Amino acid sequence: MKYGIAIFPSKDIQDVANSYRMRYDPHYALIPPHITLKEAFEEEDEDIEKVVEEISEVAKETNPFSMAIRKLSTFSPVTNTIYMKVEASEELQNLHDRLNRTDIPKEDTFNFVPHITIAQKLSDDEHSDVYGSLQMKSFEFEERIDRFQLLYQLDNGSWTVYETFRLGKG
Amino acid sequence: MKYGIAIFPSKDIQDVANSYRMRYDPHYALIPPHITLKEAFEEEDEDIEKVVEEISEVAKETNPFSMAIRKLSTFSPVTNTIYMKVEASEELQNLHDRLNRTDIPKEDTFNFVPHITIAQKLSDDEHSDVYGSLQMKSFEFEERIDRFQLLYQLDNGSWTVYETFRLGKG
B27 catalytic, yes or no? Predict the structure, then answer.
């Protein structure tokens, strides 16, 4: 099965993100707004409990931390993806790095840019228009992150939560 | 915030349910296929951790159990809702009843009919057609339930998982 690891931010942030995703993100219905900690990886069902134990250990050894969003950004010209930029923090980077060690399947091959996607798969023109108009708006959030989730993907592309991990607890 | 409690069955069952929900259930995009254990209830954010402790206690005192699906059924004529009927079991009934005690907000006011909705809000004609054609198909599943989830509802009506509870563990 295909698994992934993500943080769901507070309802406030999710509601704001969804107000844009509804129009600009074809993945709107597949998963709530989230920060990906580990990209999709394949794991056999019978081995997932071992992975859960590994992840639980990482969660236990990571304290809850503060997450800030101050602005939007874009992955253009690589992809026409607009996102709420999550401020870099040592805690978030460490959590990401530990979840992408070799004993949890599949290391990320690109740099970790923590973000919450609000628009993707836009045409170049759409991207310019949407990014231009969104830049007038303020996106300011700060909140405490105390958990993250392991999810699996269904055949229709949507994601179901398998397990919740509490930071500092497991 | 509005919270609810549900079991997500295995990916196999969710994939089958979604193949029908895609066409026949307007809630398709709001939540994965599920068995509702506790209908939506309001709780203040600052009180939810107390509720989580209560629920965790119930989870810890409930052993994993076997769940069987043998056929489809319908809530017609009350509502034109078609569902996979989850066979009655003492464990499931007890879990439901304990999660609907008075110290967890809001008791259910109707009987517990465990089910996975695959079609709803159909017209009478649609309901007859769909139910008629689905009755030719076999729906046979049996699996072990070892967890359930506490979710909250976003402004767009979709649900995000807040916490996972493991049966026998909490």
Answer: no
* Architecture, CATH, for domain B2-166: Alpha-Beta Complex (3.90)
Token pair in block for residue A155? 């055949």
The partner residue sitting opposite A15, judged by closest CB among B147, B155, B161, is B155
Place of tokens 């068995």: B35
pTM over 0.90: yes
Return the residue of A nearest to B16 by Cα: A155
Provide the token pair at A42: 């394949």
ipTM: 0.92
B119-122 long-range contacts, Cβ below 8 Å, gap at least 24?
A: B119/B20, B119/B21, B119/B23, B119/B24, B119/B25, B119/B80, B119/B81, B119/B82, B119/B83, B120/B24, B120/B25, B120/B26, B120/B27, B120/B79, B120/B80, B120/B81, B120/B82, B121/B25, B121/B26, B121/B80, B121/B81, B122/B24, B122/B80, B122/B82
Tell me the pLDDT tens digit for each residue of B97-112.
999 986 677 666 678 9
